[in-house]
Amino acid sequence: MIDCGEGTQIRMRQMNVKTNRMGHIFISHLHGDHVFGLIGLISSFGMLKRTAELHIHSPKGLEQIMEPQLQFFCDDLPFNVIFHAFDTKKNELIFEDRSVQVFSIPLKHRVPASGFLFEEKPRDRHIKRDMIDFYNIPTWRIPKIKQGEDFVTEDGETIPNERLTASPEKPKRFAYCSDTAYYEKIIPIIADVDLLFHEATFMSDEAVRAKSTMHSTAAQAATIAQKANVGKLIIGHYSARYANKNGLLHEAKAIFENTVLGEDLKIYEF
C-alpha cells in the first residue's frame, strides 16, 4: 500500500482488500493526510490477531513519531512493526522480493518527500510444449531452459533456447509521484513506465499558488508524462476547490492525450 491517510480502513473494506496479505506500506512523506491512518490500521490488525510482520518504508522520522503511539495504544500487538527509513534525496532500491523491485524517487515538496517506482522482475521464458516433447527433454531440465539455457541432446546437438521457448511478457512498471512541485529531475527515473500517477493539485490559472505550496498543475503533470514518454497518466491529489474535475482533465489531455482522472474506488488495469 502507498500512503495511509485517515479513512484508509473504510476504503479497504469498501474494496474488500484482504488485510492479511498486506506486508509492506510505503509512505511518501510525513504530512498528516498521508500518515494519520497508520495507528488505526495497526491497532485493527492487532485486534484481528494478525501475526505476520508489517514493514513500513518511509522518510526518516516516522518511527520516532509512531513509537509513543504504538507503546500507548498497541503495547500488546501480536506482530512486529518494522520501520525502514530511506533517504528522500536518493533514487535507490528500497525493497525487493521474488517478483518486484521498489525504488525511491526524489520529489520536490515542503518536507522531504519521495515517490515510488514499482518494477516487475523479468519473468522466465515460456516453454513451447511441442518442442519439449519433440526433443524428449526431461522435466528436470525445464527450469533452466525457462531461464534461457540451450539444450544439448545425447547426440551432442545443441538446440537453441529460442526454438524451445517464447519471450515472456514485458515487465510492468508503475511510478507514483505525489506530493511534488514540477520537477524535471524525475524524468530519467520514470522514463517509459507503463503507468504514471502524478499529482495535479491545481489548474494553470493557480500556477503561482502551486509553486508557493510546492504542488503541480494538471498541465505540469502532463508535461512530465509527455517528456518521460510514459504509457498512461493518472492525475490526482486535487484541491478541494475543484468540485468538477473535468477542467483538470482537459488541461492535462491537451498536452498528454492518454490521461485519466484518478477516482476513488476505481481499479486501473495496465
Number of domains: 3
Distance between the termini: 18 Å
Structural class: alpha/beta
State the CATH superfamily name of the largest domain. Answer: Ribonuclease Z/Hydroxyacylglutathione hydrolase-like
Question: Which stretches of 5+ consecutive residues score pLDDT under 50?
Answer: none
- Give the averaged pLDDT, no decimals: 96
Query: How would you describe the shape?
Result: globular
What is the number of helices?
11
Estimate the strand proportion: 15-25%
Number of strands: 14
The portion of residues assigned to helices is 25-40%
Strand order of the largest sheet: 4-5-6-11-12-13-14
Look up the CATH topology of the largest domain. Metallo-beta-lactamase, Chain A
Largest sheet: 7 strands, mixed
In angstroms, what is the radius of gyration? 23 Å
CATH architectural category of the largest domain: 4-Layer Sandwich
Element order, helices and strands?
HEHHEHEEEEEHHEEHEEHEHHEHE
CATH class term of the largest domain = Alpha Beta
Structure, briefly:
29% of the residues lie in helices and 22% in strands. The chain contains 11 helices and 14 strands.
3D structure, described in words:
With 270 residues, the chain is of the alpha/beta class. It folds into three domains: 1-86; 90-121 and 170-261, 4-Layer Sandwich (Metallo-beta-lactamase, Chain A), CATH 3.60.15; 126-166, no CATH class. The protein has helices at residues 8-14, 32-35, 38-47, 62-73, 129-134, 142-146, 161-164, 187-190, 207-213, 218-227, 246-253; strands spanning 24-26, 54-59, 81-86, 93-96, 100-106, 114-120, 126-127, 151-152, 158-159, 165-166, 173-177, 195-199, 232-236, 259-261. The strands form four sheets. The protein has a seven-stranded mixed sheet, covered by helices on one side. A three-stranded parallel sheet has the order 1-2-3, with no helix packed on it. Helix 10 (218-227) runs parallel beside helix 11. The longest helix is centred in the first third of the chain and has 12 residues, at 62-73. The mean pLDDT is 96.
